[in-house]
Amino acid sequence: MGRYRWAVASRALAATAGGYALSSATAAGLGLVLARSDTSSVDAVLWATMLAFVVHAVAALWAFGCASALRAWLGIGIPAALLGGAALALRGAAA
Predict the structure, then answer these.
(1) What is the DSSP string of 4-40?
(2) What are phi and psi of 68, to 5 degrees?
(3) How far is it, in rounded angstroms, from Cα 41 to Cα 36?
């Protein structure tokens, strides 16, 4: 019974903390990409933020829909790291 509770707690942490990391990386990266296009900066931030809410909800669904907690962490953590790195690279290139 204890192992099941740890698995659920791990999924809940992946859904909240991992989902937050993924959605913030999505908002940062997409905001920078849209700001470089012909979109105004206000519209770029607005679109990126709205999409980040959807990404966070999908990440939470993913965390509890996976076969294991490890797969939930990997499915959220790897894209968050990649998008965060891309956002840092875009931010560095803009300076």
Answers:
(1) HHHHHHHHHHIIIIIHHHHHHHHHHHHHHHHHHTTS-
(2) -140, 160
(3) 9
The three-point CA angle 78-84-90 to 5° equals 140
Mean of all residue pLDDT scores within the chain: 93
For residue 11, CA distances in Å to 26, 43, 77, 79 come to 20, 34, 12, 17
Residue 95 in this model has a pLDDT that exceeds 60: no
pTM listed for this prediction: 0.89
C-alpha 45/C-alpha 55 separation (Å) is 15
